[in-house]
Design a protein that fits this description.
Layout: E1 2-6, E2 9-14, E3 17-23, H1 28-43, E4 48-57, E5 60-65, H2 72-81, E6 85-88, E7 91-94, E8 101-102, E9 108-111, H3 112-115, E10 131-132, E11 138-142, E12 155-163, E13 170-174, H4 176-185, E14 187-189, H5 196-205, E15 210-216, H6 219-231, H7 236-239
Parallel strand pairs: 5-12, 12-15
Antiparallel strand pairs: 1-2, 2-3, 4-5, 4-6, 4-7, 4-14, 7-8, 9-11, 10-11, 13-15
Length: about 240
């Protein structure tokens, strides 16, 4: 892709075709990230794409799935400071062959509301430049630390964060059926109609996963509870299909 600035307008082009434009360099990074994400969804082979952040430890991948504003990027940034490795912030692809995660390593996008929460975790966050998204929200991008983004990795845990109404952090484990329903609820792209074999593969895939939801109050408490869940081997009840 080429980036061309003419007067006050910046154009992003591919083979001479305009993919997008913006006014002001402070709008360029969010626009470019969105375009690259759409190209990935168009060009790669996968079963489904999820609106989720992805982090990895020695034991496997943790997905944090949820809509914009649920806190997944904030929790991801704190987990990075706690020793996890980064795979993606906003979108992940599940590979056709194994439903392993195909990383989409955007820089981690942190909106203004998270900056004060992360001050103790990322002391240099306030030195990063401020960008402006198309929806008018200010955002800073945390460049991901070095990792192997070429390798597909198996998922072990999927969490569904949301903001706590009373300031408490509460974690609830989910059964496989509810977990799968929640996963499909946060599907953001399907390149082709799912067939019976795809559905069967998704159901079998849930047998090796642990699902949980958590209301996020205190960030340190949320990180501690996630660390505890991912450090604990699954019980028989965790692995049972709940109907």
């Amino acid at each position: 892709m080429d980036i061309v600035e003419i007067a006050d307008v910046i154009f992003i082009l591919e083979n001479g075709c305009i993919l997008g434009s913006c006014t002001g360099r402070h709008r360029l990074a969010p626009l470019l990230q969105g375009i690259i994400g759409l190209k990935a969804l168009r060009d790669f082979q996968y079963v489904i794409a999820l609106h989720a952040a992805a982090l990895v430890s020695a034991d496997g991948v943790l997905l944090l799935a949820g809509r914009s504003g649920c806190g997944k990027s904030t929790v991801s940034a704190a987990l990075l400071s706690a020793g996890w490795q980064y795979l993606s912030d906003d979108t992940i692809l599940l590979s056709s062959a194994s439903l392993n995660v195909v990383p989409m390593p955007y820089s981690l996008g942190l909106k203004r509301g998270s900056w004060s929460l992360l001050a103790g975790w990322l002391p240099h966050l306030d030195l990063l430049p401020v960008h402006l998204r198309e929806d008018g929200k200010e955002i800073r991008y945390l460049p991901p630390p070095g990792a192997d983004f070429r390798r597909e990795r198996p998922v072990r845990w999927i969490g569904f964060p949301h903001r706590s109404e009373n300031g408490e952090t509460v974690v609830r484990r989910l059964g496989r059926l509810e977990g799968l329903y929640r996963v499909l609820e946060h599907c953001c792209a399907v390149p082709r109609a799912l067939e019976a074999t795809d559905v069967h593969q998704l159901i079998q895939w849930t047998a090796r996963l642990q699902f949980f939801e958590f209301a996020m109050g205190d960030l340190s408490n949320a990180v501690a509870q996630i660390q505890a869940i991912t450090a604990t081997p699954p019980t028989e009840d965790d692995m049972r299909l709940h109907l």
